[in-house]
Structure formats: structure tokens, C-alpha cells
Amino acid sequence: MSTVEQLSPAVRKPATYADLEAVHPHLVAEILDGELVTHPRPRLKHAVASSALGAELNDAFQRGRSGPGGWMILDEPELHLGPQVVVPDIAGWRLERFQALPDKAYAETPPDWVCEVVSPSTEIYDRSTKRRIYADAGVPFLWILDPRLEMLETFTLTGRQWLLDATLSGKDDVNAAPFEAITFPLTILWPLNPAPDTQNAQ
């Protein structure tokens, strides 16, 4: 479960990058609105979905083998967006905005697209605080992938608000901005569903 380091209002101070660096490496750490937020590494179904989506987009938009290329796509990059430190599951930049990798552990250029793969420990942040942070930073596109419900929601930033473009589930095909140059079945993101519990079924 995610944890937020809390102090009483009288003595609370904004979290620092030193606080973040002191977090155990087995946890993902972010600074959201001045608070240090940590959560455990995701479950395997989350990791499979995130890896499968990243592989599909990397092949088409980073390597350019099954699509047009022109993007840099990274898994779990650390982003410094003003005072906010966020770690999306996947983020992408058009190459004209990200032509060289910075010689540091984080990126300060807001991405052109982010995807959050929600889990019980992160969903409240992914759907609220981090969505607002991405909008404030001017990130044009946001995808929210839910492996538990096997559902994908895609959003476009309009002004300062997120507009829901599509809600995909079941055997739907994914053809969504900013990656509408390719189409792929949503089902490839969860190829290993849990086996039936045959013992309890008897």
C-alpha cells in the first residue's frame, strides 16, 4: 500500500530530493505536492501489461520497425516537473523535443505522452494528483491502463482539462492518439491470465 510521510501541520516541511534518495530501492518514491509518497513494486500482471505495451510502442515508434518511429519511449522514468517528482509507468517524447539523453538520473522536459498502469496502491494518485500534475505540465496525452479490469482509458489535454477519448476493454483494438499510426489488440497486454482454481471448483 502507498504511504505518505506525514508530520503535524505545525512542523510539516516539504519533502526534499534527499528524502526521496533515502527511500529503500525496492520502493518507488515520488514527491507529490511537497509530500513524499512511496509504494511497492507492482504485481506481476501489472508488470506484464506495462512491459507488453512498452514493447509494442517501442517496436513501432522508437525502433521504427513496425511503425513510423520518431519517439523516445522509456519505462518508469523519473520526471522533475517543477517541484513535482513523478515516476509514470511509461512515458514518451517526440524526438524533436528529446534529441539527447540528459546526463542525469531524471528528465526535466515534460513528455508528450504518459501511461499509468494502475494498481490498488497507486490508483488514487494516478487518477487524481498525478493527472493534475501532468495537466499542469502541459502533457498532451495520458493513458490509464487497468490490468485488473483489463481496460484502457485514453485522454487528450484540452485547455487544462482531460478529455476522455476512449474506454477500451475485452477484445477491442487499440488505435489511439498519439499512436494512431498503428493498431493492436488490447488482449496482447495480458496474455497470461490466472489459471482457473480447479480445486475450489470441485
TrEMBL record:
One of its GO terms (molecular function) is endonuclease activity. CDD domains: DUF820-like. SUPFAM superfamilies: Restriction endonuclease-like. Pfam families: Uma2. Keywords: Endonuclease, Hydrolase, Nuclease. InterPro entries: Nuclease_put_TT1808 (IPR012296), Restrct_endonuc-II-like (IPR011335), Uma2 (IPR008538). The keyword Ion transport does not apply. Residues 16-182 form the Putative restriction endonuclease domain. It comes from the Bacteria. PANTHER family: SLL0198 PROTEIN-RELATED, SLL1222 PROTEIN. This is Uma2 family endonuclease.
